[in-house]
Structures are given as structure tokens and as C-alpha cells.
Design goal:
Helix content is 30%, strand content 22%. It is α/β, with parallel strands linked by helices and 444 residues long.
Amino acid sequence: MMMHWFVIIIFFISFHASNSAGIVIKYLPGFQGPLPFYLETGYVGVDENEDVQLFYYFIRSESDPDHDPLMLWVTGGPGCSSISGLLYEIGPIQFAADRYNGGLPTLILRPDSWTKTASIIFLDVPVGTGFSYARTTLASRSTDIQLGDQANEFMRKWFESHREFASNPFYVGGDSYSGITVPIITQYISDGNEAGNEPYINLKGYVLGNPMTFPEETNYQIQFANGMGLISDELYKSLFHKCHGEYRSEYISTSNTECHQNLEWYQECIRGIEKLHILQPCCATGNPLIKLPTQKLLNEHRPPPSSKCSSDIRICLVYYWLNEANVREALHIRKGGRPTWIRCSLDMNFTRTVYDVRPYHLNLSKKGYRSLIYSGDHDMHVPHQSTQAWIKDLNYSVIDRWRSWKLNGQVVGYTESYSNMMTYASVKARYLNVLISKGAKRVN
């Protein structure tokens, strides 16, 4: 069956602070010449007295912005800046792969970003993420529920100063921990529409990649490890029988020594494996929360430590770029907000309060919203088995049974669709960049 990946993106995913509606950026330090796309940045004040100031990057569709979908993108973490999505995943620019030599990192175009066919708002949430900040101690506190409420308020205010996008199909997207927050945000926007909140948002659905969803998903990591040949069949069978299929330490009795011993063996087997992409080298910064440039290193403007991992270099580059005074000035970052930019904040006053969002998926399905759930098939952190498990828990019938989807005649993944207008798609590891950068290419 022939189809376009372009159609998938369109079909399934198809600043206002009190004194500002955003500022258009025409040049960026590190990029040669004027930007060939529309970039806007700004702050929107939300919460009581607008004490929460949320920062965003907005890129207008390069095709037909008057009619193309508009998407709010929220990076996971929680607390990882949305510029991660812009620079490393789906945006129109990226860092050149050159080694850092102490100068300003170089930006180049990503030829086939999602902004070729959709307008995207990259939002720093929750408060304390990226350049978003709070004006009071009380406002600095947030939870998953508050994040959803504040993102809804952000969008209402953003549309007040961007009325030209009011009729565009609107979607919410994200990955990893955003599997928790995106359904909540989508629910709040839907509830606001039903309550008559203005302006009305033309919500059509949501998009999630390798999404955290429910507490039991970590149990599927061991099933994934066995399927990928990281542990032996003997160990897998022993783990299953001795631990009774429950591998979370807080649920295993201290007296169950055989289970604990098997888990220690399992941990030894996967030591040195990059969980986010098991085919990649285990990099120091594969986990974005550790071993990143220190303030001293940034102040001295020294290159990051040498690394065999290109991802280490790329992740470090954004620190050197966004902490440059001229870059902050170009992006119109407010002075006094956040003195040092951190990609993934560890010191946020954030409390996780929602651990299972399957009820949100069920409720959104009943309301008729579309959803696209995709999994990179070599992600061990949120394995595809766990994603397929919670989708089956929703108990909707299959309307388009499991089949391959192709790019240029090659199988790049598998897909299945359900009666609640949800589609699941897996993506083979080597084509993860294709999913992102070849969005407008023909797929069958």
C-alpha cells in the first residue's frame, strides 16, 4: 500500500507576555547569512500575575504556513530545553559535525526538517527549563498537572497575538518524558475548548515518540534485552520465573535473593550499553543530565574534553553557543532571567505527580482526536514492547493490521492502526534520522 511519510506527518500531526508578541530573528551567530526561514522568539507570562515566564522558539512552515499544521513541541526530561528538539531532532538548523576548536560553533541547515511541512512552537516547560523562569519562589514550583495548565494558558495567549494561525490544524508533540506531559496538555486544551475558553484552538491530535506512559514500562527493558541478544535465554527465563515478571526493585522482596542475584547479572550484561540507542557507543553525555561542560569550563571558553562519541561533541556545542552573549542578544533573552543556560535542569522545583497516562489516552480517544505513536526499535530506555503493551491495554480493535512501511523500496519500520484513530509506527534504528529529516520523501 503506497503512502507518503509527508502524509503521515500532516495527517496525524495534521508571545505573548503582557507586553510582547515575540520578536522576529533574521540572523543567528554561527549561521552564515540571513536565516532562510521565519524564526521568532519570545516570552509569555502565565499563572497568577504572570509570575511564570515561558520562553519559546517559533518557526513558521516553509511550505504553506496559512494552511499547514501548527504543532507545540515539548522536549522530555522533565526539564530539558525545547531547543533540543529544534537543533538535534526536527528543526531546520543543526550544528556542523566539526570538532569544537574554541570558537563559535557553526550552524548549518537540516535539509528536510519537519518545518518543511508544519509550523512548530518549541516551548521551554516546565518553569525553570531552558530560558523559562519564575519571578517568585512560589511560581517556581510546578507539577505535571501545573505544566499542562500552564501550557494551555500559554497557547491561548500565544494565539491572541497570532490570530492568523487560529484556523490551522493544531497538534501537541514530544518524546520520552513528554509521553506523560503531552496527553495532559492535550486534555487541558480540549477541556478549555469545551468550556468556551477563548481563543478557540483547532486541536486535532497529538504525536509521541518513545513515550513514557505507565509505571510497568521498565519491566519491558529485560524483554527487550533478551530479544536483542544482550542477555541469554537462560538468564531471561530465570529472571522471569524468579522475579515473577516484576523487575522494579521497590516491588521485589528483600528475601527473594535469587531474583536480586539475577538482576545483578543482568546489570553486568548491559553495562557499557547505550540505553537510548543500543547500537551507538556508550557516550559520556548519552545521558544529557551528566558530564556536561562546567561553569568554569564555559567561563574559560575551553573546548569540551575529547571524545570518541560525536553525540558528546554535539551536545556540548549547544552550551558554548547559547551561553555566548551575542547569541543571547540575537535571541532576545532577558537579562536577569536565567544567568546560565542548561540543557536539562536538575535543580528545578518540579514534582512528578502523574505516573500513568493511559486514562488520558482513553479520554482523548473518546473525544475523537488522532494520535501517532512511534518508537525507534533500538531504544532500550522506553522499549517498543512497552509502548505496544499500553496501546493494547486501551482495547481498541485493529483496523489496519501490522505491516511494513517503506522508503525508496526499503523496509524502515512497521505500523498498525486502531479504531480510536491511533496509529503506531516503529522505525528501524538506521532510519531514525530518516523519520526526522526525510519527512517529505515518498514512502510506501
